[in-house]
Each structure stands twice: as C-alpha cells, then as structure tokens.
C-alpha cells in the first residue's frame, strides 16, 4: 500500500472510531437528539391566529378556537398559536420609516414593542388567520393597528410593488350583528387588498346576527328581539363553528404552503 492509501484508510478508521465514541457518549447523544428535534420542529407547519376581539369567550374567540381545533386535528406536525391583540400593549404604524431605510429596507416592521415578536413569527409562518368582530362596519381598532404594522413594510415606495417575506394561505373571520342581506360591514377594508395582493386570495368566514350578550335583560338593547336572536343562533351558530373548524383542517392539510 502506498503512503496516500495508508493515510486515507487511517483517516477513515479514525472517523469511524470517533463516530462510535460520539454515539456512546450520552451527552453527545442527547445533543444529537436535540438537533433532530429541532429539525422536526423546523419542518412543522406553523399557523398563526390573530384574535382582534376584546372578549375572551364570545363569538370571535369561539370561532377562532374552532379553527384551531380543526387545524390541530390533522396531526402533530401542525403548530397553532393564537395571539390576542387586546392582551398586548402596542401601537399602529409610527411612520418611523425604519422599514424604508436605504440599504436596510425590511418587509417586517422594525419598530420594537410588544407586537414585534408576533410580526417576526408571522414572517416565518405557513398560514395566517385573522379574526375580528365588526364595529361600525369595520374591524376593531386593534386589528386595524395590527394590519398597519403588518402591511406597511411590504410596500416599496420606489416602484409601489409589495413583497412579504413569504406567501401563505389566509383566512379572514368576521362576526357581526348584521344579517346576510342587510349589513354595513366593510370587513377588513383596504387592508384586505394588501393581503390579497401579497399573500393570496383569502378565504372568508362570516358569522351573522350574533348575540351581543348572554342575558339581554341586563342591558339597554330594546332594539333587538332576544327571542329572534336566540332563534337565529340555534339555527346557525353550530354551522358557523363547523365552517371555522373545517377551514382549520383544510389549511393544516394543504400539502404545500
């Protein structure tokens, strides 16, 4: 055997021995398991649910919970995270223009506050769900402020193109007092146009004629018939929840995001 062949065989033998020792070392084996787990975690589908409603257990929250249940029912390779905007201290767009700095432009908001980590997570997510009750024909102020922070960094003031970190399926969930044939809802308004242009056509789920409170006798709500409200709810609410559940399963089941 020539010198080059001897060196090659020696290095191969040393590498094999090192690999065996590595596997025999419980600490190193643990580290390898951690790396494997991290890899699996990285490959998981991540769905972010943004709850723009103020009440934890009412209509919007229940619809989003059903969506989450549907997504989780697909399997353990789906990670679902729900964020309640009313639990956070943040602002809408501050017009700081940090996302437009030359050489440092970003398609994720650079203003740092409690919303920042949420925006960072959405940038890496595989699916996005936005839910809000409709107040005065619009989504809540918290949802609007969130959408400003989400969308403004996508917009280029050089050529007015719009670019997000990645495309992903989007579901928009609205709950409202209006009826299908009579309501003043503008939904997510102009922000929906941004979402559609950048992320793709969203799926809409709307729950109409929802009950504003559980006990109407405690409030000045004489313009509404409690009986009619509950009749509508009995006829439609479970169907609305099922639509949310099915949408969650559908998003989590997509083979490609």
Explain what you see:
- With 257 residues, the chain is α/β, with parallel strands linked by helices.
- It has 2 domains: 1-43; 45-253, Flavodoxin domain (Rossmann fold, 3-Layer(aba) Sandwich).
- The chain has 7 helices and 5 strands, in the order ααβαβαβαβαβα.
- It has helices at residues 3-24, 26-43, 59-72, 116-124, 141-151, 189-199, 226-253, and strands at 45-51, 78-84, 127-133, 170-175, 203-207.
- The protein is globular and about 60 Å long.
- The model is unreliable at 1-42 (pLDDT under 50).
Task: Give a short overview.
This protein has 257 residues and is of the alpha/beta class.
Mind telling me which CATH architecture of the largest domain this is?
3-Layer(aba) Sandwich
The CATH topology of the largest domain? Rossmann fold
Helix percent band: 40-55%
Structural class comes to: alpha/beta
- Biggest pleated sheet: 5 strands, parallel
| Total beta-strand segments | 5
Annotate the secondary structure layout:
Layout: H1 3-24, H2 26-43, E1 45-51, H3 59-72, E2 78-84, H4 116-124, E3 127-133, H5 141-151, E4 170-175, H6 189-199, E5 203-207, H7 226-253
Parallel strand pairs: 1-2, 1-3, 3-4, 4-5
Helix pairs in contact: 3-7
């Amino acid at each position: 055997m020539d010198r080059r062949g001897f060196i090659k065989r020696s290095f191969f033998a040393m590498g094999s021995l090192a690999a065996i020792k590595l596997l025999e070392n419980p600490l190193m084996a643990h580290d390898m398991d951690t790396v494997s787990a991290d890899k699996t975690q990285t490959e998981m589908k991540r769905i972010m649910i943004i709850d723009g409603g103020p009440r934890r257990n009412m209509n919007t929250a229940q619809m989003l919970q059903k969506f989450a249940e549907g997504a989780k029912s697909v399997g353990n390779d789906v990670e679902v995270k729900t964020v309640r905007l009313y639990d956070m201290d943040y602002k809408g767009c501050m017009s700081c223009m940090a996302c437009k700095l030359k050489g440092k432009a970003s398609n994720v908001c650079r203003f740092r506050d409690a919303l920042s980590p949420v925006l960072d997570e959405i940038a890496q997510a595989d699916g996005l769900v936005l839910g809000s009750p409709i107040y005065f024909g619009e989504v809540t102020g918290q949802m609007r402020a969130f959408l400003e922070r989400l969308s403004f960094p996508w917009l280029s003031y050089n050529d007015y193109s719009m670019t997000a970190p990645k495309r992903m399926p989007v579901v928009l969930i609205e709950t409202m007092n209006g009826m299908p044939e009579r309501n003043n809802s503008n939904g997510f308004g102009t922000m929906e146009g941004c979402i559609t242009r950048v992320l793709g056509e969203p799926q809409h789920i709307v729950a109409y004629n929802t009950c504003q409170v559980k006990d109407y006798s405690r409030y000045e709500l004489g313009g509404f018939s409690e009986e009619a409200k509950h009749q509508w709810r009995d006829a439609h609410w479970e169907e609305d929840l099922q639509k949310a559940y099915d949408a969650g399963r559908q998003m989590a089941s997509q083979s490609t995001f």
